[in-house]
Amino acid sequence: MTPAQNNRLRRVAVISVHTSPLAQPGTGDAGGMNVYVLQSALQLARRGVEVEIFTRATSSSDEPVVEAAPGVLVRNVVAGPFEGLDKHDLPTQLCAFTAGVLREEAHHEPGHYDLVHSHYWLSGQVGWLARDRWGVPLVHTAHTLAAVKNAALAEGDTPEPVARQIGEQQVVAEADRLVTNTADEAGQLVDIYGADPNRIDVVAPGADLTRYRPGDRAAARAELGLDPHELIVTFVGRIQPLKAPDVLLRAAAALSERDPELPLRVVVVGGPSGTGLERPDSLIELAATLGIAARVTFLPPQPPDRLAQVYRASDVVAVPSYSESFGLVALEAQACGTPVVAADVGGLGVAVSGGETGLLVPGHRTDDWAAALGSLLRDPDRLAEMARNAPKHAANFSWEHTADGLLESYRRAVAGYRVNTELTARRGRGPWKLRRLGSVRA
Ligand code: UDP
């Protein structure tokens, strides 16, 4: 009997095709998913489950295998050119990538992996085949969904292609279990993608609470060269239309116009990504056009310890995204004792406790955002109370909790696997029906 059949997990193959857990998040294709994959792997390894993460090599200097920590290996699979392959062209490399994953497994004794966990739909396609070849369950986390993203596009943003939603739908149909960040996301999988609600596990992501914790604001500002007396509102994340840093700049401009004495500073941390890549300086240009260039400080992507100082240095962190499956930045900021003003979309309504640890703003109108930010910045007592509440709320979300939830999902996947295999053998897997792709704008 293999360990998987025995319900004891020894080793998990994690698939993260399009972005490496070792990449610096906050620019290009690297963001919350990278942090999620690495942090959950570290926690699983601490619980005695080895994790091997397969990702695409993006540099000729990438070693084939890197030990990220004891029990966590990152395998850099060569599939396509190292540099210059656009994320939208990655589907062309899925065959090569899958071949790399299957060949690696073939070097080991049968039963080397007890389970496959895929992140994002591209990885789901790879995990699906690996699952069938290895005879182990597939757990899939979508992270974002094309249909949901397309329903909340920023003006001028490019819709996700129909092919992606078809690919997502295939993975949803094939995966033994699906993991979502929130109950709302589980509902979307059921309503839009036709997922079986009994195969979904809601597991909230977390923040590294040992790193992201309250600290001395004055010291943080001194370290970052920021003025000790200004009111600082910070945006952290990839610079792309979906993340809507322009909404913050417009609100800041409106606030400054109405109240020129308000000592406001906007700090923007991150690098261009996705549909922001073709004009990397567009946000700098917007600040100049709005007449607030002198009030905006741009910082490149920051490593975690320095990012914690950025959060501590800020009076408010703004997360104006049009769509957000959770919003790790909101959690991390609160863990550092900084209130968050966030768009009331996706997981942000879970990540932020509206009225207690920050404000949830419906929509993206400049006036609403200026009013929300202004109401906090002009009310130091309320801001201080929210700052006190914020770390308590963030303490509900840790990577330890996430790993516990994932392990539970893995156990269910393993326990249900034999039953599924028997059912599948009787009924066959297909042909399954595609749901109407009603919410996709082509
Ligand atoms: N991040 C970082 N340095 C930066 C900007 C972002 O390490 O300069 C990390 C941040 O700590 C967070 C992640 O990138 O963990 C962004 O995750 P989030 O869920 O907020 O957004 P996503 O990238 O998933 O859309």
UniProtKB/TrEMBL annotation:
<dbReference type="InterPro" id="IPR001296">
    <property type="entry name" value="Glyco_trans_1"/>
</dbReference>
<comment type="subunit">
    <text>Homodimer.</text>
</comment>
<dbReference type="GO" id="GO:0000287">
    <property type="term" value="F:magnesium ion binding"/>
</dbReference>
<comment type="similarity">
    <text>Belongs to the glycosyltransferase group 1 family. MshA subfamily.</text>
</comment>
<feature type="binding site">
    <location>
        <position position="238"/>
    </location>
    <ligand>
        <name>UDP-N-acetyl-alpha-D-glucosamine</name>
    </ligand>
</feature>
<feature type="binding site">
    <location>
        <position position="243"/>
    </location>
    <ligand>
        <name>UDP-N-acetyl-alpha-D-glucosamine</name>
    </ligand>
</feature>
<feature type="binding site">
    <location>
        <position position="144"/>
    </location>
    <ligand>
        <name>1D-myo-inositol 3-phosphate</name>
    </ligand>
</feature>
<dbReference type="GO" id="GO:0010125">
    <property type="term" value="P:mycothiol biosynthetic process"/>
</dbReference>
<feature type="binding site">
    <location>
        <position position="312"/>
    </location>
    <ligand>
        <name>Mg(2+)</name>
    </ligand>
</feature>
<feature type="binding site">
    <location>
        <position position="18"/>
    </location>
    <ligand>
        <name>1D-myo-inositol 3-phosphate</name>
    </ligand>
</feature>
<feature type="binding site">
    <location>
        <begin position="29"/>
        <end position="34"/>
    </location>
    <ligand>
        <name>1D-myo-inositol 3-phosphate</name>
    </ligand>
</feature>
<comment type="function">
    <text>Catalyzes the transfer of a N-acetyl-glucosamine moiety to 1D-myo-inositol 3-phosphate to produce 1D-myo-inositol 2-acetamido-2-deoxy-glucopyranoside 3-phosphate in the mycothiol biosynthesis pathway.</text>
</comment>
<dbReference type="InterPro" id="IPR028098">
    <property type="entry name" value="Glyco_trans_4-like_N"/>
</dbReference>
<feature type="binding site">
    <location>
        <position position="87"/>
    </location>
    <ligand>
        <name>1D-myo-inositol 3-phosphate</name>
    </ligand>
</feature>
<dbReference type="Pfam" id="PF13579">
    <property type="entry name" value="Glyco_trans_4_4"/>
</dbReference>
<keyword id="KW-0328">Glycosyltransferase</keyword>
<feature type="binding site">
    <location>
        <position position="302"/>
    </location>
    <ligand>
        <name>UDP-N-acetyl-alpha-D-glucosamine</name>
    </ligand>
</feature>
<feature type="binding site">
    <location>
        <position position="314"/>
    </location>
    <ligand>
        <name>Mg(2+)</name>
    </ligand>
</feature>
<dbReference type="GO" id="GO:0008375">
    <property type="term" value="F:acetylglucosaminyltransferase activity"/>
</dbReference>
<feature type="domain" description="Glycosyltransferase subfamily 4-like N-terminal">
    <location>
        <begin position="31"/>
        <end position="206"/>
    </location>
</feature>
<feature type="binding site">
    <location>
        <position position="338"/>
    </location>
    <ligand>
        <name>Mg(2+)</name>
    </ligand>
</feature>
<feature type="binding site">
    <location>
        <position position="324"/>
    </location>
    <ligand>
        <name>UDP-N-acetyl-alpha-D-glucosamine</name>
    </ligand>
</feature>
<feature type="domain" description="Glycosyl transferase family 1">
    <location>
        <begin position="217"/>
        <end position="392"/>
    </location>
</feature>
<keyword id="KW-0808">Transferase</keyword>
<dbReference type="GO" id="GO:0102710">
    <property type="term" value="F:D-inositol-3-phosphate glycosyltransferase activity"/>
</dbReference>
<dbReference type="InterPro" id="IPR017814">
    <property type="entry name" value="Mycothiol_biosynthesis_MshA"/>
</dbReference>
<feature type="binding site">
    <location>
        <position position="332"/>
    </location>
    <ligand>
        <name>UDP-N-acetyl-alpha-D-glucosamine</name>
    </ligand>
</feature>
<keyword id="KW-0460">Magnesium</keyword>
<feature type="binding site">
    <location>
        <position position="32"/>
    </location>
    <ligand>
        <name>UDP-N-acetyl-alpha-D-glucosamine</name>
    </ligand>
</feature>
<feature type="binding site">
    <location>
        <position position="164"/>
    </location>
    <ligand>
        <name>1D-myo-inositol 3-phosphate</name>
    </ligand>
</feature>
<dbReference type="Pfam" id="PF00534">
    <property type="entry name" value="Glycos_transf_1"/>
</dbReference>
<protein>
    <recommendedName>
        <fullName>D-inositol-3-phosphate glycosyltransferase</fullName>
        <ecNumber>2.4.1.250</ecNumber>
    </recommendedName>
</protein>
<feature type="binding site">
    <location>
        <begin position="24"/>
        <end position="25"/>
    </location>
    <ligand>
        <name>UDP-N-acetyl-alpha-D-glucosamine</name>
    </ligand>
</feature>
<feature type="binding site">
    <location>
        <position position="120"/>
    </location>
    <ligand>
        <name>1D-myo-inositol 3-phosphate</name>
    </ligand>
</feature>
<keyword id="KW-0479">Metal-binding</keyword>
<feature type="binding site">
    <location>
        <position position="311"/>
    </location>
    <ligand>
        <name>Mg(2+)</name>
    </ligand>
</feature>
